[in-house]
Amino acid sequence: MSICVLYGGNRIDGNTETITKKVIQELNVEEIYLIDYRIEPIVDKRHAPEGFPEVHDDYNAIIERILPHQVLIFSTPIYWYSMTSVMKSFIDRWSQTSRDANYPNFKKIMAEKKAYVIAVGGDNPYIKGLPMIQQFQHIFDFIGAEFSGYIIGEGNKPGEINNDLNALHAAEQLREKLRNS
Amino acid sequence: MSICVLYGGNRIDGNTETITKKVIQELNVEEIYLIDYRIEPIVDKRHAPEGFPEVHDDYNAIIERILPHQVLIFSTPIYWYSMTSVMKSFIDRWSQTSRDANYPNFKKIMAEKKAYVIAVGGDNPYIKGLPMIQQFQHIFDFIGAEFSGYIIGEGNKPGEINNDLNALHAAEQLREKLRNS
Amino acid sequence: MSICVLYGGNRIDGNTETITKKVIQELNVEEIYLIDYRIEPIVDKRHAPEGFPEVHDDYNAIIERILPHQVLIFSTPIYWYSMTSVMKSFIDRWSQTSRDANYPNFKKIMAEKKAYVIAVGGDNPYIKGLPMIQQFQHIFDFIGAEFSGYIIGEGNKPGEINNDLNALHAAEQLREKLRNS
Amino acid sequence: MSICVLYGGNRIDGNTETITKKVIQELNVEEIYLIDYRIEPIVDKRHAPEGFPEVHDDYNAIIERILPHQVLIFSTPIYWYSMTSVMKSFIDRWSQTSRDANYPNFKKIMAEKKAYVIAVGGDNPYIKGLPMIQQFQHIFDFIGAEFSGYIIGEGNKPGEINNDLNALHAAEQLREKLRNS
Asked: Which of D130, D149, D173 sits opposite A130 (nearest CB)?
């Protein structure tokens, strides 16, 4: 299966990126660091007569890159108890793409994908990260994608994720699963 | 009590704004429409030796405006099952302000505030909006503010919130509470 | 529509019963106080060759009474952050009834019902009662019933629910809805 | 540390018991199978002038057995998306013990304990078991115990838990942690 990772991290070499790299090592993966791109917040014109305007940013180029893949990995620190604003900006814009004549099959294509979430947090993520997991479940339900699994890890300072043996093992298991699929 | 409303809406006259206006009518309130400002996503430098750089956007000006108030109302559509990315960008930046020498008492001041959430969604918000409410609870717990109440409403097309009688009544109750506090 | 209330309360005239009575006043409703009956905990024989044994308690008689109704109202205090054990004992036994040759259409009949939850708690129920609401959503999803709405109220000592004006208003709204359906 | 396991399972050799046995193998542990005892549902007399009556069942004997231990493991199948009614009956009665003159230090003693949850479910437990984890968090917060960790596993038919490698690994990790504490 063809795999794409969307990194939502707000810093280089964060714990979430570290564990995600363990998941994808030696796999053929397309990696997208959302922080490197300009993604405007959505201006919601669903109910406006003129419809959505064209937005001159990098969003559509990222959409083009994720659409061909069968597996999407959403890799985000648990930031203020949900995904980062950069990743949220990206997902919010799906409301626009769903109505964009240039992507008539957007929802249909998204519905064929398998989605994973990898998330590391520093403040009791195994409890306080659960609402975010439930949010992702609702997101994937809406778009029709299969929520195939998630990894929660604990870490705050750079490298701390390496102390979370359960998360590391789950990363190894996910790598096996992706390699054999 | 002095009240500030933070609007996270992605469109003019959305349902969330409509019901929020009912809550604050005839009250003396400072209103901030986040979509009108440029708020950069955080670049997380908490663990970088150089620390956070100065960011040239409108974020600090908004912080200055909210700090004097005793009550903060977070008014956001339930967008992809959480707050909008605009509001999330604003909250994510609190990580920076918490370490900003220009705001040495940021957390202390925030901890004295009462916070409310007003949120309207179109896809079964009374169930699918609950993870967002839990997320806000964790946010306010972290910053030390009191989560004094929330209103969930249902609506999709403009004006539909006016059919949600429970939400309208809750808005009326909240208005009474704010007026008498 | 024909309505049945299942009371899970552990005491007489508790707050949950009080507000439920407001919902059903002047409506024609069958009321079942689970605490008045003997309901054995399930002994799970789903995977045992001999299957489930007959249980000599009041459970089946209650099932007979709820099956004819189109609306089920689950009225339970939020007790240790979920429904009471009496109500949980009742629901757990559905696993047995689902395989009981005497009730071959159990799931089909349950799937035609509309379900409501009325729940009052004393410890920040608007936040800490939310996992229970999510639990009920999963229960109704599994059995196929429609989760048509819920009321959360706050109260601890007898009568305190009368101070929760939002809950009382929601009760009034639900009564109107049931009366007109 | 002294460890006590409370089994809430409704059947012999269920998946939850299987994985719990892996956690405690070769450790010195007191095991209590709640299904083997008679635990009456609470009759809530917190606000009744006469107070709680003495209940002639096995509940207090179980309380006596758990109080001396420093670690409590709540081992329950995810049954209708929460703990079994047997375990819930046991916990509900804590409301009585908290006011029982024979156990004046009940809450103080409970507050010194570390609590773990081990839970296996058959219907997407990694998502649909999360409200139960949140319920346990609220329970332990109320009683003051530390929620030190949890394991969710997937399995339905007997033995299926052995296919959930992540859960098995987490069991092994927890065993190491308990052995060294």
From this structure: D130
